[in-house]
Q: What sequence folds into this?
């Protein structure tokens, strides 16, 4: 029986080549798009799954609440604090800390050949938390022998090829962890005692565990009773069997207040008002962690896009199959006369649809194999590329294809299995009910409703993202590059000489010491009141510190009144401030000029108010999170002794300069001053884009899928137009005999398809505006949907009708040009 079904299915595929090509190609496009999203989402959903006992491993997230934007900071750098947490929470089996950094590694002491590798300085228990077992050597003496080192398989192969690395010595230079009794560029020698398996490729850890050393060697100068904030730290805990994380999270406030975690001597707030702690399962950090960037929302939206495209592909197949209703009626009637049941007829159509889907899936795999690495690179995602070796992912892909095939074949089989053989065979002609024709028109309307809705959506998405990425923040974001290296923590004299040398490079407009992050990321709310107010009138205002006076020039912040900062030595280290235009109105000054010379009392330390003089006013300026409404802002130069060192130089380039050449010259100058080329390079504009990373990725998929939706709809429309023209051949012949022109015939056929497309647009517009309005909630600075929405609705409608006319017009013209005698000869 199955063999007969396959024979009939193959015969129908080859007999109707155009129909088969359009149907299978439409299914292939739908499957390819759906499979890409399944692979992308599967890769996102399976982060950190390969760690042993991952359900009991948690990251300790520490959120600093006192800043303008709650910020995840990496702390818990001292053994004292780790022990306190372990003692307080009985459900914690292990707690450990990793400091992620990079260092120069040499295989032989004194060797000139060096490799810059990931160095992970770990405390006690990290080996137990992540169940890091040796595949060569032994980890037993790691914690007792401070000069032992553990390396991964990849590093062992890279450094030693096929030699046995156990017992060999590594010389490591890592200035960030130099012993205070040594110079910052001292080297440390380690003996390899074990080789462990490579870390999972998709992991929430800041870097792979390539080289593990004891964090206590070299000794760190951290105060054991204080938290140390550093973006390179992470703390992990492993809970006991059966422990509930919610019980631990509910007790963190009490723990923080009891132990005064991380508070300075003059801090008057409770610890829980400054910090908040939370443990998040390692498998959920990527999706639900504090810095997850709405990953879970993105995954949901992508699944919705996949469902839409798959549905369009199925509808396209159903529409084309039911359009061939007339050709299949006699075949089905004869089969039913010879004893075929409804179930067998339905099974026949299911086999045909599954065969079409199988062909489409084969095309999909052929398309995706070379495309996935390219997509992984373009989308900056760690996509699962080896899907053939992952049975779970492969099962999801085949399961989705099976569902698509069953959904596509069931309705045509159900409709055709209901025909009455006596009616068809007695009349010796095909008959299609008005209900079937109306249903097919509804499918066309559905297809173009989806297409129109997506066209409207992508228009709004593109406009919103352009507006967000090009918003006037008050400073230059597009031409600033950060060069990063720990050795750039220079004394003032050397630093000023370095800055001047780089500024002298043609095309370099400004150079400044800065932080490798979005300007204002570390700003805080501080109580402020004017000289005419009382201390009880103080209101929290955003305060951002400037550590290098050249940073104003670097960011190209323009002043509308007053002057900029000067080095502390030039004005006696006075606590001067610059405010933005928004602050002028907030404090009630008549104008920017009137604000100059006025005094603001700022509670910086938490106990004393510091009188600060306003020396300048900027135009509209917004620092920190650009996805927030602008607010009053105070810029203060860090007083002597307050500045924190960061190994980063910011360089602002001219618009027309050769960026690569200018940066290369800057790196060469840095090498002369610090003895090495800076290891890191990042553009400020990329940091701005990172704020919208998830939304940009959604937009890329939306643009592509909107084009696919329109194309699939047009494929179906082309097939329907072909069948409609064939069905109306005699009618068109009669019309031409009675004097109808080619223009009249083409207009008749175009109007037949224009009506459902116009109706589809009217249905799609409110749906698209409703959905996209929810997406816009991700932005605090939104475009005016009531202006742009109608604009894109009208454009989408006009574009949909134009595309439909182009799709149908050629076929209509060919039919209209045919000689009437050919159509009427049969009669």
A:
């Amino acid at each position: 029986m199955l063999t007969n079904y396959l024979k009939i299915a193959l015969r129908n595929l080859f007999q109707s080549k155009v129909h088969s090509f359009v149907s299978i190609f439409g299914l292939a496009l739908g499957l390819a798009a759906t499979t890409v999203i399944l692979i992308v989402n599967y890769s996102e959903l399976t982060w950190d799954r390969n760690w042993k006992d991952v359900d009991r491993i948690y990251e300790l997230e520490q959120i600093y609440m006192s800043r303008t934007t709650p910020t995840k900071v990496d702390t818990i750098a001292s053994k004292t604090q780790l022990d306190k947490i372990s003692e307080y929470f009985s459900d914690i089996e292990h707690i450990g800390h990793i400091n992620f950094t990079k260092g120069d590694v040499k295989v032989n002491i004194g060797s000139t050949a060096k490799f810059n590798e990931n160095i992970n300085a770990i405390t006690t228990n990290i080996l137990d938390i992540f169940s890091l077992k040796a595949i060569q050597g032994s980890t037993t003496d790691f914690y007792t022998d401070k000069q032992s080192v553990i390396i991964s398989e990849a590093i062992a192969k890279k450094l030693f090829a096929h030699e046995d690395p156990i017992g060999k010595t590594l010389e490591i230079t890592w200035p960030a962890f130099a012993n205070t009794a040594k110079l910052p560029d001292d080297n440390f020698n380690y003996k390899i005692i074990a080789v462990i398996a490579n870390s999972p490729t998709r992991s929430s850890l800041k870097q792979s565990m390539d080289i593990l050393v004891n964090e206590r060697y070299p000794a760190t100068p951290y105060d054991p009773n204080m938290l140390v904030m550093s973006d390179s730290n992470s703390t992990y805990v492993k809970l006991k069997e059966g422990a509930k994380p919610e019980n631990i999270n509910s007790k963190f406030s009490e723990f923080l207040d009891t132990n005064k975690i991380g508070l300075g001597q003059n801090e008057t707030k409770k610890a829980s008002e400054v910090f908040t702690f939370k443990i998040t399962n390692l498998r959920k950090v990527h999706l639900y962690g504090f810095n997850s960037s709405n990953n879970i929302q993105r995954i949901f939206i992508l699944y919705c896009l996949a469902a839409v495209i798959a549905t369009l592909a199925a509808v396209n197949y159903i529409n084309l199959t039911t359009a061939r209703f007339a050709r299949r009626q006699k075949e089905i009637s004869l089969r039913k006369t010879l004893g075929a049941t409804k179930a067998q007829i339905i099974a026949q159509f299911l086999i045909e649809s599954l065969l079409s889907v199988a062909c489409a899936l084969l095309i999909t795999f052929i398309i995706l194999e070379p495309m996935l690495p390219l997509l992984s690179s373009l989308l900056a995602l760690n996509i699962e590329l080896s899907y053939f070796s992952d049975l779970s992912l492969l099962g999801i892909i085949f399961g989705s294809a099976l569902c698509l095939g069953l959904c596509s074949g069931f309705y045509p089989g159900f409709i055709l299995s209901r025909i009455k053989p006596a009616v068809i065979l007695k009349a010796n002609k095909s008959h299609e009910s008005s209900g079937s024709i109306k249903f097919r028109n509804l499918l066309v309307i559905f297809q173009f409703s989806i297409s129109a809705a997506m066209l409207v959506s992508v228009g709004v998405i593109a406009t919103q993202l352009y507006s967000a990425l090009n918003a006037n923040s008050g400073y230059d974001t597009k031409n600033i590059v950060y060069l990063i290296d720990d050795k750039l923590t220079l004394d003032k004299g050397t630093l000023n000489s370095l800055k001047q040398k780089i500024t002298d490079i043609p095309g370099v407009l400004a150079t400044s010491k800065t932080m490798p992050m979005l300007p204002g990321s570390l700003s805080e709310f501080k109580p402020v009141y004017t000289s005419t107010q009382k201390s009880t009138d103080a209101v929290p205002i955003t305060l951002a510190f400037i550590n290098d006076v050249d940073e104003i020039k670097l960011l190209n912040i323009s002043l509308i009144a007053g002057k900029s900062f000067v080095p502390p030595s030039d004005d006696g280290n006075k606590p001067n401030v610059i405010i933005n235009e928004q602050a002028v109105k907030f404090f009630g000054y008549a104008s920017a000029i009137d604000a100059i010379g006025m005094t603001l009392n700022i509670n910086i330390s938490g106990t004393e108010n510091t009188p600060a003089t306003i020396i300048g006013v900027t135009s509209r300026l917004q620092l920190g999170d650009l996805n927030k409404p602008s607010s009053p802002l105070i810029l203060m130069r860090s007083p002597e002794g307050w500045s924190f060192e960061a190994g980063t130089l910011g360089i602002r380039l001219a618009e027309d300069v050769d960026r690569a050449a200018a940066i290369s010259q800057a790196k060469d100058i840095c090498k002369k001053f610090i003895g090495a080329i800076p290891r890191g390079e990042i553009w400020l504009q990329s940091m701005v884009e990172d704020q919208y990373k998830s939304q940009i990725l959604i937009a890329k998929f939306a643009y592509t899928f909107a084009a696919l939706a329109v194309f699939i709809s047009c494929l179906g429309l082309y097939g329907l137009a072909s069948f409609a023209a064939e069905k109306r051949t005699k009618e068109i012949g009669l019309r031409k005999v009675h004097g109808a022109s080619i223009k009249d015939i083409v207009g008749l056929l175009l109007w037949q398809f224009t009506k459902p497309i116009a109706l589809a647009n009217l249905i799609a517009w409110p749906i698209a505006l409703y959905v996209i309005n929810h997406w816009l909630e991700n932005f605090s600075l939104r475009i005016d949907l009531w202006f742009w929405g109608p604009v894109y609705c009208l454009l989408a409608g006009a574009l949909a009708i134009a595309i439909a006319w182009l799709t149908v017009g050629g076929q209509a013209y060919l039919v209209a040009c045919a000689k009437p005698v050919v159509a009427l000869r049969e009669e």
Observations:
- Residues 296-359+400-468+693-824 form one domain.
- The radius of gyration is 34 Å.
- Residues 242 and 570 are 63 Å apart (CA to CA).
